Fold each of these.
Amino acid sequence: MIEVRDLHFHYPQGEFRLEIPEFSVAVGERVAVIGPSGSGKTTLLNLIAGIFTPITGSLMVNGVGVHEFGDRERRDFRITTIGFVFQDFELLDYLNVLDNILHPYRITGALTLDKTVRERAERLAGEMGIGGMLRRRSTDLSQGEKQRAAICRALLTQPKLLLADEATGNLDPSNKTRILDLLFRSVAEHEATFLAVTHDYELLPRFDRVVDFRGFRADTA
Ligand code: ADP
Ligand code: MG
């Protein structure tokens, strides 16, 4: 599902360099990524999602070279294939919760927003415990509620690849377990691949494999 080779990336500003000689994730695999803050975990997820482009190297997702796409194709590919739970949620302040969850369907012609999708959105929100908040502005939610709205948005498209950046970081213990169960259930139902960045070592046994980001950095110092 993901194949990274000799990837090199840096931001236009700053000293940070990301070098990944080899990293791959098999179809259906559930992989946790750990590593110190600032090591480039979020950067890697953004590269995989095609939000950033590698300087050199190749990056294949679902059999296609994301880096070879034009901007528009890359965005359509991301929206239809990948669910991304961002570390800082990236909800749109001017939309209510339901419209945030439905947003992927409104920004690409590659997806059709119909009754089934709306019903799925409401069901997901209910399962996430935010079913009663759909008409609220997203700015009126707590951090944990925003996080759950962001998870609903990522799952709504039934993505083949789910990327989660600290997706349970703002949830209390009981919500955390419930929402993780839901994430894993959704991944299993859609035979999806799951790549999750986490600082929560308690969660690691739930994954097939744990990748420590320090491994990538060992030869770049
Ligand atoms: P992590 O998710 O592992 O905490 P990040 O991928 O967010 O790490 O960041 C890796 C490094 O890149 C950090 O040193 C961070 O300061 C830097 N960085 C992140 N975003 C930018 C940016 N837009 N411009 C310049 N440097 C950035
Ligand atoms: Mg991060």
Note: The pocket of adenosine-5'-diphosphate (ligand 1) is lined by residues 11, 13-14, 16, 35, 37-43 (CB under 6 Å).
Amino acid sequence: MNIILNGASGSGKGSMAALLVRDFGLVHISTGDLFRENMAKKTELGKKVESYVSTGKWVPDEVTIAVLLDRIKQPDCKKGVILDGFPRTLNQAKALKAVLDVDLVIAIDVTDEIVQARLGGRYMCRKCGTIHAARWDKIDKCKKCGGELYQRDDDKAEFIQKRLENFKQNNAEILDFYRADNKLFVVHDKLENTPEDTYRAVKDVVAKL
Ligand code: ADP
Ligand code: ZN
């Protein structure tokens, strides 16, 4: 079973993915994580994508598609994958269709207000990578490991709106693409919802696959 998680930055894709991994044993693949890992290790790929990722610009299709197709070829992906952050362009969706049977696309529909609120307050642990809503929790250390918290460069206010506009522009045709294939399930999120609330509807749909 292969699933795509679709949604703007800050829509809660990462949390949703973690819950799906827990319940269905799929492999979570986030193109953003792949890029950041490579940047941290200073690989060739890392150097190539750094200027894009740190300013919230999209990595060119050619690079992104090659990285993703290479990852899903690995043997662990045979048990099924959850793609998080891919595809973001119609090109990427078409390239994926040629090599992977997608069973379901879960689109998390959020308002601009939710995205602004969540991303502006999102901090990551330098040590273990856990994401915290530090602005509201009023914490300055990681709750899991005590590590230092920092704000990702691309979560700074000036980049949030730009990313959101970019997302919306491209996403309409991606949703059309999967709707035409009868693969699309849209779930609506609310600011007061916890990830578990939103997940409940998703879990029912996935369990029926
Ligand atoms: P977010 O969901 O907050 O945008 P991600 O971790 O998904 O964060 O992605 C971080 C960055 O990685 C993006 O801003 C972009 O530069 C790059 N990236 C990730 N996935 C893609 C993709 N499918 N196409 C192009 N660039 C991507
Ligand atoms: Zn930590």
Note: The pocket of adenosine-5'-diphosphate (ligand 1) is lined by residues 9, 30-32, 35, 52-53, 56-59, 64, 85-86, 88, 92, 154, 163 (CB under 6 Å).
